[in-house]
Amino acid sequence: MMEPVQADDAGAMLRETADRLLAARLTPQVRARAAGGGWPDDLWAALDEAGLPAAILPEAAGGFGVPVADALSLLTVAGRHALPLPLADTMLAGLVLARAGIEVPAGPLAVAQGSEVRLDHAGRATGHAWGVPWGRHARSIVVLADAPGGPVLLALPQAALTIEPGADIAGDPSDAVRFEAVPSQAAPAPFGAAELRAAGAATRALMIAGALGAVSAMTVEYAGERRQFGRAIGQFQAVQQNLAVLAGQAAAAAAAADLAAEAVAAWAASPGPGLLPAVAAAKVRTGEAAGLAASIAHQIHGAIGFTQEHPLHHHTGRLRAWRDAFGREAEWAQVLGRHLIAAGPEGLWPAITAV
Fold first, then answer.
1. Distance CA 226, CA 224 (A)
2. 216 and 245 Cβ atoms separated by less than 8 Å
3. Is the pTM of this model over 0.90?
4. Alpha-carbon distance 24 to 34, whole Å?
């Protein structure tokens, strides 16, 4: 198991550990099993044994006390490998449960963003949620319920849920869940649904940034190997121009994702609506980059990039899924726009520079 680490080295150690582990364990066979709907339990067990899902938790909650922004940087590695497992959702669920004072269950977790939940006087939850990432595999699902005293955070055990399987555009589980009179751990939530959605959007921005780095690298490599008319296609000016645009989009997405990670770290320490503008900017920027970069990468790869065996297929499929998850660019552009309008003429420039 991972030993406690110093803050300055935490992010680099996590990324290096995750990169080595996924390079060795996320084999084509494991990826094929996941694509067929199977749960890669060996790979999850390896992640768990390395302590990666718990890295973001404080030591009092069974984690390693890694600073939140450093722990979240782990998700860029998950994106780089197009990880077919709910590492991001487990980290986010653990973070909000720990902050609310609820015991964090072991195993994979999920966050239900679209949910309608009511509590009875005995504290039992009834409702449903949809589009729950990896819901069928999660040991507990975190939902937010309205209550007279404010939002309440709940951890619903999977055994008490009715699962209706679904899938996102990449083929990963995205399920509907129903529950009735379920006893659950509950605590007042120091945030609302909009902030929980923003935190989820930040995790997807980080994974998009990681995936774009991998897409850029594999496209440059392919352009140097594929030959037409007696020379590598990467020597043609038009291809070089597109590779430059692709690299620029990946770099811009990485910078925006870092912004989102810092915003989530500040929010975890002191919850408040200040999270929204930074995450909105990051989700808009990474989403735009994902669309443009995927298009360029497939143009350069040609038909081979669409085959199940090629890694580009897995990366761009998840780019599309993560772009959709927790809101696309149009939704977050409106959030950002409302924030800037509310700042007024005198506050506009400070609001822009603060983001």
1. 6
2. no
3. yes
4. 16
